[in-house]
Design brief:
Order of helices and strands: EHEHEHEHEHEHHE
Number of helices: 7
Shape: globular
Strand content: 15-25%
Number of strands: 7
Distance between the termini: 37 Å
Helix content: 40-55%
Length: 250
C-alpha cells in the first residue's frame, strides 16, 4: 500500500475555494491528483486560483461563480459541474461568513438570516444535492468546514456559532442519510491566519494564542492534511465525525 494520497480520476468541488483555507484545500486536492472546481462569489478570484492549479499541477480546474447562501442557485452549480466533469467525488463545503456586530441586540434579522444561509442552509442544500447523486453513483466524500465556535461560542459570534453547531449536526445526520457509499465528515477549525487576520489586534491575539497548546494560530496550509485524509480512501471507515483542528485551543 502506498502511503501517498492518490485522488487521480476524482473531481472535487470546493466552495469558498478562491482564498484562505478553501484555496489551500483546492491546491492540495489538485496536487493529490484531483480535478477541481473552484467556486465562490468572486469569479475573478476563482479564475486566478484555477489558473494557479493548472500551472502548478496540470490538473483540470473549473472556476464557477456561486453564492452558497442562495438556495435556488445551488442546483445550477451542481448541473454546471456535472456538465463539465460528469461527476463529483468530493464536496468541500468551505464557504462561510461571520459579520461583526457590537451587541447581540444589534443583530438584525437580515444579518442573522444571511449568516445561517451561508454557513448552514447552503451547505445542507448543496450536500443534499451532491450526496444524492453520489449515493446513486459510485459514492464519494462530503467535507463540511465547521468551527470551534460551534462548541465554544463567544458573544461576538453568536449567529455564526449557532450555524456551525447546526452544521455539525447536519454532518452526522447526512452520514446516516447517504451511507454506506457516501461518507460525510466535518473539520472543526480553530483560529487560522488567513487573509482576514490582517485586521486583527496583533497583541490581543498574541495573548489569546499563548493559551493554545501549540501557542500560535494555524497556517492555512495546515488544514490540508485533514482534508486529504477525509477526501481519500484513507478515511474509508470514518463518517459522521467532527474532527477538531485547532492547535489545542482551550
Amino acid at each position: 500500500m502506498s502511503v501517498a494520497v492518490d485522488l487521480s480520476g476524482r473531481v472535487a468541488l470546493v466552495t469558498g475555494g478562491s482564498r484562505g483555507l478553501g484555496r489551500e484545500m483546492v491546491l492540495g486536492l489538485a496536487a493529490a491528483g484531483a480535478d477541481v472546481v473552484v467556486a465562490s462569489r468572486d469569479l475573478a478570484s476563482c479564475e486566478k486560483t484555477a489558473a494557479e492549479v493548472r500551472e502548478t499541477t496540470g490538473r483540470r480546474a473549473l472556476p464557477v461563480s456561486a453564492h452558497v447562501g442562495r438556495w435556488e442557485g445551488l442546483d445550477e452549480l451542481v448541473e454546471t459541474v456535472h456538465a463539465e466533469f460528469g461527476r463529483i467525488d468530493v464536496l468541500v463545503n468551505n464557504a462561510g461568513m461571520s459579520p461583526r456586530y457590537d451587541t447581540v441586540a444589534d443583530v438584525s434579522e437580515v444579518l442573522f438570516d444571511k449568516v445561517l444561509g451561508v454557513n448552514l442552509k447552503g451547505p445542507f442544500r448543496l450536500a443534499a444535492l451532491v450526496g444524492t447523486r453520489m449515493a446513486a453513483g459510485e459514492g464519494g466524500s462530503i467535507i463540511n468546514v465547521s468551527s470551534t465556535g460551534a462548541v465554544r461560542p463567544r458573544a461576538d459570534i453568536v449567529p455564526y456559532a449557532a450555524a456551525k453547531a447546526g452544521l455539525n449536526a447536519v454532518t452526522v445526520g447526512l452520514a446516516h442519510a447517504f451511507g454506506p457509499s457516501v461518507r460525510v465528515n466535518a473539520i472543526m477549525c480553530g483560529t487560522f491566519l488567513t487573509d482576514v487576520s490582517a485586521a486583527w489586534d496583533v497583541e490581543a491575539f498574541g495573548r489569546r494564542a499563548a493559551t493554545f497548546a501549540l501557542g500560535r494560530g494555524g497556517e492555512p496550509s495546515e488544514v490540508v492534511g485533514t482534508a486529504l485524509y477525509l477526501a481519500s480512501d484513507w478515511s474509508s471507515f470514518t463518517t459522521g465525525s467532527v474532527i477538531t483542528v485547532d492547535g489545542g485551543q482551550p
